[in-house]
Amino acid sequence: MKISGLVDGISSRAYKDGLIDASLSRLVDIITLPNELDQATLGNLIRSLYPAGKVSDAVVIKVVGGVGHGLSKPSFSVQAALLKWLIMIYDVLENQRILSQLYSALFNLLDTVAIRPQLCHVLSLITRRKHVRPFRIQMLMEVTRQAGNEPPLVGLMRVYKDYYPDVIVGDVTAGRASVFTV
What we know:
This protein has about 180 residues and is mostly helical. It is built from 10 helices and no strands. It has a domain at about 5-95.
């Protein structure tokens, strides 16, 4: 049997019934761990990640662990799709605080241009006052300057400015930043 047939079967079943946590976990393993699957197949698998219930912390940790630099990490387009998936399922996480606990790991990837829009969106969803620290403000301002005021970065900077308007001054948050899109 061809792999495309298996993926189609998984997609059909997932769409119809959703995936229980164990199945989600196995599929995330397949997507995030080194494999021989092509981009289209991985994309189809990511689009098939329909949770049947709440998404466990273990699955979220696997997804975040699959994001970043390294030979054992999936391609940046797969990482971007996984971050998009996290955004879409944010409301059905078993424990939304898990992403808050992984904030540093996500924030430290802001210099990765290929996943920056999705990363900024995730960060803007989970940022709370406790996350906004002077060293993060400084790094975010520096990345924003280097990137030429990219809308996702400006959007995240606006979230930071909401928490500390007296610290973030200047025209960094001026202009039009498009609303994050999924």
